[in-house]
Amino acid sequence: MLLQKRVSGDVCISGGMDKETSLAWIICGNRLFVWSYLSSSASRKCVVLDLPSGVSPSNSWMLFIVNWDTTHRKNDKSVKQCNSAGVVMCNQRTRALVYWPDIYSDNGRSPKTSLASNDGLSCLSSLIASAISGGSHACVALACGSNGELWQFYCSPTGIQRKQIYPDVLSSSYQGSESGLLLGTKGYPQSLIWRFSQHYLEESNRQFFLLTDHEIQCFVITLSSNIAVMKLWSHEIIGADGDLGIQKNLAGQKWVWPLDLQVDNQGKVITILIATFCKDRLSSSSYIEYSLLTMQYRSGVNGSPENIVPIHERVLEKKAPIQVIIPKARVEEEDFLFSMRLRVGGMPSGSAIILSGDGTATVSHYWRSSTRLYQFDLPYDAGKVLDASVFHSLDDDEDGPWAVLTEKAGVWAIPEKAILIGGVEPPERSLSRKGSSNERSAHEDRRNLSDAVNVVPRRAGSEAWDAGDRQMAVFTGITRRAAQDEESEALLNHLFHDFLLSGQVDGSLDRLRSAGAFERDGETNVFIQVSKSIVDTLAKHWTTTRGAEIVALAVVSTQLVDKQQKHQKFLQFLALSKCHEELCSRQRECLQTIMEHGEKLAAMIQLRELQNLISQNRSTGAGFPYSSSESEISGSLWDLIQLVGERARRNTVLLMDRDNAEVFYSKVSDLEELFYCLDKQLGNLISAEMPLVVQIQKACELSNACVTLARAAKHYRNEYHMWYPSPECLTPWDSQPVVRRGLWSIAFSMLQLLTEISHLDMSRKSDFRYNLEALTEVLLEAYSGAITAIVERGEEHKGLLDEYWSRRDTLLDSLFQLVKISVETSYQNSSEGTEEQSEAILRDLSSHLLSIAKRHEGYQTLWNLCCDLNDSELLRNLMHESMGPKGGFSYFVFKQLYDTKQFSKLIRLGEEFQEELVMFLKQHQDLLWLHEVFLHQFSSASETLHALALSQDDNSIAAAIEGNESNGTEIEPTFAERKRFLHLSKIAALAGSNADYDKKLKRIEADLKILKLQEEILKLLPEDEKNKKNGNQLLPPVDLIELCLKSQNRELSLLAFDVFAWTSSSFLKSNRSLLEDCWRNVANQDDWGKIHQTSIAEGWSDEETLQVLRETMLFKASYGCYGPEAETFEGGFDEVFPLRQENLEHPTLKEPCSSVEALLMQHKDFPDAGKLILTAIMLGMAEADAGMKEVSSPME
Questions:
Q1: Measured between alpha carbons, how far is 1005 from 255 in angstroms, rounded to an integer?
Q2: What's the rounded Cα separation, in Å, for the pair 583 and 725?
Q3: Are 213 and 184 in contact (CB under 8 A)?
Q4: Three-class SS state of 635
Q5: How far is CA 213 from CA 320, 335, 340, in A?
Q6: Strand pairing of 253-263 and 269-279?
Q7: For 12-26, 201-215, 648-662, which range has the lowest pLDDT when averaged over its residues?
């Protein structure tokens, strides 16, 4: 990665930045300087290499860094400092090649040189290199020449071999077209780039792209001793089809130059910088249009990096329309155009940097539906921009800020905020320093940028930190504050400084009110800003010849204590000046944030003490199972501190020259970042490849750190509770989602290790259990605080509650299993162990778990402990202590006894918890009647038994039927068992003897008869219908009647009327139409036409006729419903559907049927056998002894 520059005089300078290794390099004169631009100034190592003799100084060097470090893995998202790298350097003009096998090794600093003849050779334009698997510091380099050739260089510690592998990659290109559009081939191919920037030594193949004058070509190279390069595919980006890229032959086009291309981190999106020479037909003026063409792999195409098979289908497609950067720029020389380079991947997301040949850097980004440009500039002469890169982001799929390498001022960062606010619309100007066709516009653009925000790029260092947070706020993404806010903050700082000197606060409150100090909420509040500046103060550089880390760690504790004392002074100032009272009443959240700064500071101090203790133990080897040869300060906590500090340095470019640990202990207000890194980077801290004992040690160390932070914050909160505002609706910092996620990550990691600890010794098991218990308590308290706040705000909280309950039960159950394992181990180790001793050990080891479960309503764990201890007194005490609106622990205990069918224990235990038992039994009617009988509430017991007997909930009644306390499977209740409940209900009603017990008894008898009717009906059903019905399932009366109607059985047609008889009068009225269907059905059971014809043919007498009619179903139905022996529960059929039609003057068949007689008059046989039909129903209604007298002759 390079850009070549020349400064005034005879000194030749080239420079570049390598994103993969985070190394920057500069060639000045005959020396090469290489250093890490991400390292802090204290730990930064600069390698100085002398160019070999015979190689003349030049500004035309290309350089590529080969990373030999094989410790990184594909799933390792952290960025490690490069400790082993080779350098390949090639001169564009002379084609001289220099190779250093390993610049970090004394043996690898001896360069190898290969010189080439310049006769007839064109210049090289691009260089890439890659390590070869299996080789010892061997790599292959590829370079493309401006006349179309592709060269291969094999570099090893023994020498360099070069050969031309593709003599003409432009063989398919074209020089012009009929329209006169020219695509010059001079200088092509222009760019070489690996498809994936990162390379792992286990990969044997690697793909790269080559940019020609009109297409993109993709090659694959075999990285082994037998190096082979093969072309996979090519895609034309400039041609007749505009959908494939840029359409040629458009009006006004003269030349099109693809200048450079870049690939995203995933190797799927390709961005090409295009320059188009155009001529305005109206004004005849010429100009150049700069644009970005974005291509991506098509879905379905084999874009796998392992693919080595040529692809003959179209591979790429446009991702977005062409983005015009500058529509009309000045015409530049061709050499200047070819010196331009493109970089992608920085913030803002989707932005790109264009590097010009004269040393300018312009950031282009698409914002608010338009392209905007930001040109890098410094208030003083920093020389030319040599190259640009991106700071690595530790977040997944996130870009980092842009960084540029300058000629005289080193590496500078461009904050995202500066680009967003300082960007301007594309002017009519060039990307160079020469000016533009509209000098006034360019000047105004620069002036507007300066006026819009006082933001300039900052050196990747902390010199600007001391200027205060007003400047730093811009770089950390905080909205730019108004002048009034800055004035009020300056006033607050002044008043606080005076208080520190004199202890006086006279008039401070009024002055701050007048300055508007209380008008802002959130992070822009001036009191929060001053508090934050106190706790986040960055110390002077901790550099020394003894080593930056040692000195930093020696002084950090003192600095933290000094910060704490100053913050307490600030709180005193707020109290004495009455600002505390004002904040407490008007801005509770701001005061809460200020107090939380104190919490975090106290937590950070305790964490530092913990780190000291761990370092001391590690130095002596106490408690650490792995090799003592590791660094004294190594360990999972130290690694976590490094990750958090590194993330802070990446996000705040002003801190790039500081040590990671220094940044971590300085950025106190961002303590949540520790939990963020714990969540995102835990796999790097505790790897599955580590020995189990090491994993456990590291997990316990991280858990202890989290618990230490939480307890220190809680202790501070309790000590200064009078200073805090009312906590309603406020979520504490240690209950925020990022903190909960970090805590759960380490807790889940420890849960996964549970299955592996069985073979560990007792002390390590105990230590593991202790750490998991403490972490569980902290995590559950965090959830409790978050839920309390969100409920008080009236926000939706079901999802959070479900997550809390799930993780609570998982953690408590795992801890209970750990306790049982420890008890079992202790019992086995005891030579004279008894059951009493085992119980005592369990009681002792479970005491802390018991308190956690009580605090967070872990009822299952409480129940398990009581059962294992067989301690009924403890169970009763817990039930008394854990009473809640829904029964609390008592309800849970009753449910456990109910599920295990220990009904007698449940009732006996309920005598002590009457209210909770009643609440439980309301949901379990099958046991409620027993409790009511015990309380002599017989009438209520009768009602409960009656409802239970007729219940459709078979599980409920089945549980009540099983009088034993076995755990057998539930059985289906039979009709006999339902009858038994009805008889018990009758007995309870008699015992109660209330005012309406007679009516109650009648209803019970009626239900008994309906149960008996269902048995009879089911017996008479056909076999196929029986199979469809559950023999013991209770059917509603309507279903029973419909079953009778569907069947053609004569007996069932009569039983339907019996079901009606034992229901209520309201049932009869509401099912009148169903009753009519029953009369129609029973009338159709006999052939009345045949009876009529037979009576006439045989000349039946009246006595014979009546005898035949008594055998009909119609007679039997009439007799059962209206006869002298008819029985019903209440009322009678006459009240709902009388037998006779009293008024026959105006009846018509179309009128609704008002009686059985009127309904039967609609029978199909009524015209012929009507008298017989009416005689049958009248005969059934007549008294038995007077039937012949009251019934008229059927023949009349």
A1: 105
A2: 8
A3: yes
A4: coil
A5: 21, 15, 15
A6: antiparallel
A7: 648-662
